[in-house]
């Protein structure tokens, strides 16, 4: 039986919404409207319109989808502007100093537009072609910046958590294969893995414990090491912990050195950690999600003198290279270790089709479909160069030092330590108040009051159970004057709390 005619399932006029050569007039028109809306957003005075529970509940309702009712593009954009754009957090605003969110450079935005419009997927050569070479070029560039050997390689990831996951997976599987001849990827778990232990600073990122759990090893497989007065991993404590683990009958397999802790921006001492890791035959991973890009600067070269000795590195370009999220990479000193995540699927990248001239990047990734995130970095470097990025990083670093000195000279504040990156941790101390619990309440009140007002966003953290405020400075357009004004707002809120509570 033959069907004479193909049924018309879609109104032909609706097919114009699919991007093709005749869609660009409409795309240009809509893009102009979007840019006009975004331009208004970027001229807003405050980082946030303000926190109001009635508005929050209303926005929750307005976000619901009614898929039977559609709007014109202009109507939908107005709706989106009212619901989201006007109310979102403006990371580019000088009064936003809370988390590791940076403003983005113009070339990266346009590269993102290109990558999204073409919609390249970079898992296999027959989907990405020369995009493969662009990603490999960026990976080679950053490997060179870290002085890694020619046999080093890497792959773009969704973020620092995924990169750290890959590091722990490879540390576990390589130790198992090298010391027990067990291929975990092929044969699965064996008894000794339950004894594997990983060491990191007590200030390391939470993803180390989270990933150990996801790998089936559990939180207890991660041994936190005490830090010194500069919030850096204490090497003597590391040796003691390793010896204690061995005496308990467990097996030390890896150390994570943090290059820029999330809360304090501190660098663990690579010089001594590399020696210890080598002596005990352990994998050494450097989590440079925050501080990694500072390898481009002159001011921070000293922290990277032994980076060529590590086995793997995490780096987030969307934190300190002014790229839109997501934009991160995982690097390996020896690319042969990618064998622990490789897989060959008949329909996608069959082993017999391996071609060194036309590589399939999926062989290095735990993801299958991946966006062409490397284009943003490549285009940024092509247009701005690395020295421009380095100057931005130097700017925020010296800004942090200036603010630290200002706070340290003010009796209304207590500072934790001199910043090594661009983070300043401090707390407001009310006159006549001695109880830390009351200081905690006052500082949390300050943080929440500033956020709800939309006038400034600062973060908070805890040290030895005590609440502190935190400036995370990643915007080169922020000035000392901006920060001094936020400090004045902090004082005003602290004084008001004393008056009314």
Descriptive account of the structure:
The chain is of the alpha/beta class and 501 residues long. It has two domains: 121-380, Type I PLP-dependent aspartate aminotransferase-like (Major domain) (Aspartate Aminotransferase, domain 2, 3-Layer(aba) Sandwich), CATH 3.40.640.10; 386-500, Alpha-Beta Complex (Aspartate Aminotransferase, domain 1), CATH 3.90.1150. 41% of the residues lie in helices and 13% in strands. The protein has a seven-stranded mixed beta sheet with strand order 2-8-7-6-5-3-4, with helices on both faces. A five-stranded mixed beta sheet has the order 1-11-12-10-9. Helix 1 packs parallel to helix 3, helix 6 (130-145) packs across helix 13 and helix 15 crosses helix 16. The radius of gyration is 25 Å and the shape is globular. The mean pLDDT is 94.
Q: Would you state the CATH class of the largest domain? A: Alpha Beta
Q: Give me the CATH fold name of the largest domain.
A: Aspartate Aminotransferase, domain 2
Total beta-strand segments: 12
User: How are the strands of the largest sheet arranged?
Assistant: 2-8-7-6-5-3-4
